[in-house]
């Protein structure tokens, strides 16, 4: 091309492609793969591969140890169930509700006890008795209340069926009364005596005579934390 009468020469430099052909790339990849594969197949190479040890977290070990300890510490206590005289309540239902109460995690079971009903030879005997026959167990028992005599825990059928005036006036329901009377009388077998109300509106101790008088406390069918001990079983606070 000429501009102003002067000729300018433009040199064109050829482009050089330095990229290897595709077939060379493929051959290189195959060679590398073959080398790696041969090294992995070699037993001597495999020996150099080590899997890191998996460490059990401390919290997991502690949890498992705690579960095992709790399982080993559980104490089984057996009991029998029977009736005396003419009772209105259904014995099968009584048995079921007693088991539920004794093994409830709000009750004496919190001491690590598992209560189990057996046909004979139990540690204590739970008797559902006709009210008029309560005094036949001891002169300290009467037709109005439930009681405990030695290894016999006697539940008054009238109380089981209808609770008491004091309990009903305080707004207590029949199921919680049954929880309470079982826990209270079994509490005597465990070694507890009677307690009084600790203060107005406080939950009553299960060993308070709630059937007779709440003394200003709120009705409570379950043992308090302070009641979780047993001289009979050698369990201390």
TrEMBL record:
InterPro entries: DUF3152, MetalloPept_cat_dom_sf. Pfam families: DUF3152 (PF11350). GO terms for molecular function: metallopeptidase activity. Residues 60-215 form the DUF3152 domain. This is DUF3152 domain-containing protein. It comes from Candidatus Minimicrobia vallesae. The lineage of its organism: Bacteria, Candidatus Saccharimonadota, Candidatus Saccharimonadota incertae sedis, Candidatus Minimicrobia.
């Amino acid at each position: 091309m000429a501009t102003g009468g002067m000729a300018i020469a433009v040199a064109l430099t050829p482009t050089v492609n330095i990229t290897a052909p595709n077939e060379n790339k493929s051959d290189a990849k195959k060679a590398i793969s073959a080398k790696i594969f041969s090294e992995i197949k070699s037993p001597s190479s495999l020996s150099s591969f080590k899997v890191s040890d998996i460490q059990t977290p401390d919290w997991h070990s502690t949890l498992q140890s705690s579960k095992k300890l709790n399982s080993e510490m559980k104490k089984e206590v057996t009991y029998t169930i029977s009736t005396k005289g003419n009772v209105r309540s259904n014995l099968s239902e009584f048995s079921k509700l007693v088991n539920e109460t004794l093994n409830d995690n709000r009750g004496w079971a919190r001491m690590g006890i598992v209560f189990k009903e057996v046909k004979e030879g139990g540690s204590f005997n739970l008797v559902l008795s006709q009210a008029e026959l309560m005094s036949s167990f001891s002169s300290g028992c009467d037709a109005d209340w439930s009681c405990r005599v030695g290894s016999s825990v006697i539940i008054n059928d009238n109380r089981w069926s209808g609770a008491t005036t004091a309990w009903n006036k305080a707004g207590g329901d029949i199921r919680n009364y049954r929880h309470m009377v079982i826990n209270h009388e079994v509490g005597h077998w465990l070694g507890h005596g009677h307690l009084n109300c600790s203060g107005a509106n406080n939950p009553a101790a299960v060993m308070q005579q709630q059937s007779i008088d709440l003394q200003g406390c709120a009705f409570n069918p379950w043992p308090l934390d302070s009641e979780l001990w047993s001289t009979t079983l050698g369990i201390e606070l």
